[in-house]
Amino acid sequence: MGIFRRPRPGHRDDPEQEVLLQAIGYVRNEVTKPRPRGWEKVESRIEILAEHAGKVAGLDAYSHVLITFYMDLAADAPKKPETLTLATGNTYGILATRSQLRPNHLGVSVVRLLGIDGAVLRVRGLDAIDATPVLDIKPYLPEYDAHPDATIPSA
Questions:
Q1: pLDDT digits 0-9 by tens, 48-83
Q2: What is the reported pTM?
Q3: How far, in Å, CA of 119 to CA of 137, rounded?
Q4: What is the spatial distance between Cα 119 and Cα 45, in angstroms, rounded to a whole number?
Q5: Contact criterion met (CB below 8 Å) for 56 and 116
Q6: Residue 88, CA distances (Å) to 36, 73, 97 in order
Q7: Exposed/middle/buried for 95, CB within 10 Å: 0-12, 13-18, 19+?
Q8: CATH number of the domain that 45 lies in?
Q9: What is the pLDDT at residue 93?
């Protein structure tokens, strides 16, 4: 049965409360502080660490990628709100927003992949500031990631 042994269904130990993640690279751009909007034209480089450089092979065949990153500056924010009132005047639980003030400060964005040069990805639309740690990169697959029937609250 290999090195991974899964317990029988319904028989699983409690999961760990803490999870250790390590950056696979870092964002490089001209944005130095968080902002709520205006990311659509921002071009960024994602510099992949040398030990992960070979893992981007084939990624250049995709037009878009999913970037998971750690919003490290948000971890020091003085307020950790349960809710947030948006510019529309509507109040939502923090998990119903795109705010960086999330419990684990994880960001996930779909961005256009402009190109790859060695271990550096060039992307547009990433809502992460300079030096943000990148945790994972996946190709965007429309059959899994696009949902034409998705809805959002009205203003």
A1: 999 999 999 999 999 999 999 999 887 777 677 899
A2: 0.85
A3: 13
A4: 10
A5: yes
A6: 14, 26, 12
A7: exposed
A8: 2.40.30.70
A9: 94
Which of helix, strand or coil describes residue 107? Answer: strand
Q: How far apart are CA 2 and CA 41, in angstroms?
A: 46
95 within 8 A of 102, measured Cβ to Cβ: yes
Backbone angles phi, psi at 54, to 5 degrees: -70, -15
Contact in structure between 21 and 70 (CB atoms under 8 Å): yes
Instruction: Quote the number of domains for the chain.
Output: 1
* Cα–Cα distance measured from residue 13 to residue 57, given in angstroms and rounded to the nearest whole number: 36
Residue type, 83: T
Residue 43: both structure tokens together: 């071009």
The boundaries of the domain holding residue 36 are: 25-141
Token reading at 142: 């429309």
The alpha helices in the chain, defined as continuous H runs, are 142-145
Residue with tokens 């034409």, as numbered in its chain = 148
